[in-house]
Amino acid sequence: MRIAIVTDAWHPQPNGVVRVLSSLHDRLAAVRHDLLVIAPDSFRTIPCPTYPEIPLAIGAGRAVTARLDAFRPQAVHIATEGPLGWAARRHCLRRGWPFTTAYHTKFPQYLHARTRLPLSWLYGIVRHFHAPSSAAMVPSHSVYEELSQQGFANLRHWSHGVDTAVFRPQGKAAFDFPRPIFLYVGRVTIDKNLPAFLDLPLDGTKVVVGSGPQRDALIRRYPDAKFIVAHGDVQLSSYFSAADVFVFPSRTDTFGLVMLEALASGVPVAAFPVAGPLDVLSKASPDHPVGVLDEDLAAAARRALSLSPADCRAYAERFSWDAVVEQFLGYLAPIGCVGGQKSL
């Protein structure tokens, strides 16, 4: 099947959206689907305002049109609501092609935190983007309910997986800091609520692995914390494994793939009892907990120290990428006729 994936988030950006899309791409290619990825690395870009690490493609509308027409896709998936996503959406509507979309990031909350624009306006823009989609894929039940209440239609639940061959228990040697080690991995941005982690009165060491626009300010504000950037999955997976507890302070994530990566590494999770953590940890047995959810995040982190690494690993192994890919393919909307010829 010829599948076009249009995304404003792609390598070398280090974030969960890229992780999901690249994992999906590799598994689709492995079973011989013909893929076209339209991403910012092929276009002239400018830094995203307030988040310069993210490049935004500019003036790409005609090129997106030309690439899609030349590829003659049998299905189009628009993964993000950025400039490339909007350009692909316009082209599909002009051609009368059905397409699917995904809601990976709570952009309304993120933009509201940065700009203070009314959430109702921001939700309205994102709702308009997804309205023509044949299936707007969302990663969790909580996000499904939230968007339903905001008037979104055509929502479909699409879970995420974790690569348990990459993320696995490897011992604790990667960190030589006083223990216990409380770890955060992810973007260092305002929506991740990192001060809620870094302010906690915890013994041992707090470690932040990641980059983003808040990093320099947080380094100055929290000189006792360790700030690290991982170079590649091999190094990143060793950092996960070396932690004692993974602390996830975000209150606005749609899913939180890093929690699954921590669990696959045998590291329990401490988080607030909000969407994202609730969804990721919801299937764990009460007799074999893999995380602690509490509005007192310090108490959650301390209690998580006693949880079983083996239980964490076993739980993560239930999140199969094969099921994720099968679900994705089932949601795709076939384009019946492309360029005057029947799709094959």
Can you describe this structure?
The protein has 344 residues and is an alpha/beta fold. It folds into 2 domains: 181 residues, Glycogen Phosphorylase B (Rossmann fold, 3-Layer(aba) Sandwich); 139 residues, Glycogen Phosphorylase B (Rossmann fold), CATH 3.40.50. The protein is built from 14 helices and 16 strands. The strands form 4 sheets. A 6-stranded parallel sheet has the order 2-1-5-6-7-8, sandwiched between helices. α1 crosses α14. The longest helix is centred in the first third of the chain and has 15 residues. The C terminus is likely disordered.
Explain briefly what this protein structure is.
By secondary structure, the protein is α/β, with parallel strands linked by helices. The chain has helices at residues 16-30, 61-71, 83-95, 107-115, 119-130, 141-149, 195-198, 215-221, 233-242, 257-264, 277-281, 297-304, 309-316, 321-331; strands at residues 2-6, 34-38, 45-48, 51-57, 75-78, 100-102, 136-138, 155-157, 181-185, 205-209, 226-228, 245-248, 269-271, 291-293, 337-338, 341-342. It has two domains: 2-161 and 322-342, Glycogen Phosphorylase B (Rossmann fold); 181-319, Rossmann fold.
Task: Walk me through the topology.
Layout: E1 2-6, H1 16-30, E2 34-38, E3 45-48, E4 51-57, H2 61-71, E5 75-78, H3 83-95, E6 100-102, H4 107-115, H5 119-130, E7 136-138, H6 141-149, E8 155-157, E9 181-185, H7 195-198, E10 205-209, H8 215-221, E11 226-228, H9 233-242, E12 245-248, H10 257-264, E13 269-271, H11 277-281, E14 291-293, H12 297-304, H13 309-316, H14 321-331, E15 337-338, E16 341-342
Parallel strand pairs: 1-2, 1-5, 5-6, 6-7, 7-8, 9-10, 9-12, 10-11, 12-13, 13-14
Antiparallel strand pairs: 3-4, 15-16
Helix pairs in contact: 1-14, 2-3, 4-5, 10-13
